[in-house]
């Protein structure tokens, strides 16, 4: 029986899609519709080893999904000829309500809508994606896979912020955590590589992409994670600051009279590597650093220092660590980040092997620590689309 899932990831001005076999992870096609709502839209579709880019105006999210379907018709595989079992949606914020993927129905849409205040940038776009996919695929089951769900196992002492009860109870102010589908996938793959049951494996996983976060995973369950109520907290990211003194808001407000929205916008979109070096793309940052750019040097050092700090903290949270695992764009590709953020930690049993790590881009789960290293250092490429497809089939398999 077919296990093909159309995976949809809707952003405010983009829609990513992927046709994935949930059993094997094979991707038959994938694509990106960009600049939705602007006059200069584009559809990029990859299938059969070829990539085609079609520049066209895309008025709204419905037009975006229709454009993706046109690309399937034109360049293949035709969705009428392959047996698609379900549509799997990435939904960013599931609040405290969703600890697992769920079938999309009117109640789920209402619940995701009620969570918009917690994710005002992401959930509205995800809701658009749910609505248009339900309209265009009325006969297919649809599943929401939440980025926060994996972290619903956080113990109370880890998810609770030290703020008044009314903030916590009436406004759901707490740590939620994100990148959950990536952590679910990578934790299992890391345990496989270590040849240990995931239930007996303790990991510090570092998801370093455009967004960056760290998670302590004990026996397959998230017990601490660096992103909080929103994805702003924690590590240094492409354009997000990560951790800072919350009093910075009040200080800027007092000194400059800035509105909170403006400060929030700068911390989310103009900070992180971009704020430090004027460059949020890590590949270009590395090039600038190699060319002697002072801002890029500082950005790299701050970025790695923050990772090291979290590795130490999560080591203490877990007590025993089997592996430190790097994943996502930077984690999979940058030997320099892996080496720099773990340098000098031999006393903690962590020793990166220079030649294994020096390979740079790593495309298969790989150990990059020395044989003597008590704690393994692993690079495990993430595959969020496959994980969404798998979780989608886990929900619809029995239908
Ligand atoms: P992701 O969000 O997982 O797609 O990761 C995107 C980030 O990975 C961007 O900052 C890229 O510049 C970075 N990246 C991709 N390839 C490389 C590479 N070869 N070396 C360093 N960074 C890379």
Structure description:
With 399 residues, the chain is α/β, with parallel strands linked by helices. The chain folds into 2 domains: 4-146, Nucleotidyltransferase, domain 5; 196-384, 2-Layer Sandwich (Nucleotidyltransferase, domain 5). Helix content is 39%, strand content 20%. The protein contains 15 helices and 14 strands. The strands form 2 sheets. An 8-stranded mixed beta sheet has the order 5-4-3-2-1-6-8-7, with helices on both faces. A 6-stranded mixed beta sheet has the order 11-10-9-12-14-13, sandwiched between helices. A hairpin with a 3-residue loop joins β9 (202-208) and β10. α10 packs across α11 and α11 (294-318) packs across α13 (335-342). The longest helix has 25 residues, at 294-318. Adenosine monophosphate binds next to α10 and α12. Adenosine monophosphate (AMP) binds next to α10 and α12.
